[in-house]
Amino acid sequence: MSKIKNIYAGICKAKLNQKKQFAILIDPDKIDASNIGPLLELAQNANTDLLLIGGSLVVNDVLDELILKIKSSCDIPVVLFPGSSRQLSYKADALLFLSLISGRNADLLIGKHVESAPFLKQSPLEIISTGYMLIDGGVPTSVSYMSNSNPIPAGKDDIAVCTAMAAELLGMKMIYMDAGSGALNPISASMISAVSTAIDIPLIVGGGIKTAEAAHRAVASGADIIVVGNAIEKDPSLIRELAAAVHM
Questions:
Q1: In terms of Cα–Cα distance, which of 66, 73, 86 is closest to 25?
Q2: What is the pTM of this model?
């Protein structure tokens, strides 16, 4: 299928029209490309808006194969959600150029970006600079361990707000608040509301969202895009009700 253009413009248009979006996070280490067909059919039928591809490790070498399989099977935009500068592919439509603004690890604030910049500058990918904020979800996660950084405490809405505002002032195009894969608790409605109110750029929220009620609560609180990964890995049939809860 042809390359999809202007993904960020579409996200901004949806935000302007108060249309919430649903995204599925696919970890290449946890899914076999040859068996992804049923999940993609569920995603397409549920009008899933985006497919994010990535994980904290991605130790296998099937990223290109997985993306090509996805793009040959559906027309949902494919966006890289890289856990490291090694998780890059020209085959996707766009890439979230993530800066871990909640931590103080210089490599993940700018260091790895310098390494990947020559590759990305020449790539056909749509690059979307994104301020990535890790929020405490009640249990240690792969993201906090691999990034060697502490998450923002769950009850510190003011820290989350100031961090998001700083990212927006630095010119980042989106904010991604993440409780991490396998989080015990989703990000609180009060934190989502506080951050959403404080910024004008799109807000993505993920981690710990396991039910339609949690998904709807997040969008009702101000999230523009909801990302679900772990819950769908365990039960793909949740896609329809999660998407419906976001889109309602």
A1: 66
A2: 0.93
